[in-house]
Amino acid sequence: MPLVGNPAPDFKIQSTRNLETLKDNVSLADYKGKWLVLFFYPMDFTFVCPTEIIAFSDRINDFKEIDAEVLGVSTDSKFSHKAWIETPVEKNGLGGIGYPLAADQTLKVSRDYDVLIEEEGVALRGLFIIDPDGILQYQVIHNLNVGRNVDETLRVIQALQTGGRCGANWRPGQGNL
């Protein structure tokens, strides 16, 4: 199980980084020097998942402003991801997003991050914040039926970036303890 404060498990998997060719893999090394929000979701064309994926995409410029990138991962194929991205929102699609989705078809990355439900072959909702040096700084894992809060993810990254102690309910612009 990945532990906060240790190097994040390495990965290299297929992705939608180049939506036209689907030939660009993504790896942890691609994000060296930047903060990475790596989040796992159960599967494409479902109900809670698109709300999260679209919410992260709607705020992608806020992540870029704090030198952070976003990568979504499920155990679906890159072809399923592409079809979902290209399907309009009103037809249960994503309608385009501002970051890639990665395909963990071997289940290795989901296992390495300890989010895999083995008997179902899908990932729990795991969210990991990895610092520019590849060190896992934050993780939260929960069950399938509740989506994550993008504002909280941004707040946590900003708190980590201060390098200091940030008390409960800390907000950007407040001092450290």
Helix content class: 10-25%
Q: Which CATH class is shown?
A: Alpha Beta
The CATH architecture is 3-Layer(aba) Sandwich
Number of continuous helical runs: 5
The CATH topology corresponds to: Glutaredoxin
CATH superfamily: Glutaredoxin
Q: Strand share of the residues?
A: 15-25%
The total domain count is 1
**Which structural class fits the helix and strand makeup?**
alpha+beta
The N- and C-terminal alpha carbons lie at a distance of: 30 Å
Short summary:
This protein is of the alpha+beta class and 177 residues long.
Describe the structure.
The protein has helices spanning 48-58, 60-65, 78-86, 108-112, 150-162, and strands at residues 12-15, 25-27, 35-40, 68-74, 101-103, 116-117, 122-123, 125-130, 136-142. The protein has a seven-stranded mixed beta sheet. The chain has a two-stranded antiparallel ribbon with strand order 6-7. By secondary structure, it is of the alpha+beta class. The chain starts with 11 loop residues before the first strand and ends in a 15-residue tail after the last helix. Helix content is 25%, strand content 23%. A hairpin with a 4-residue loop joins strand 6 and strand 7.
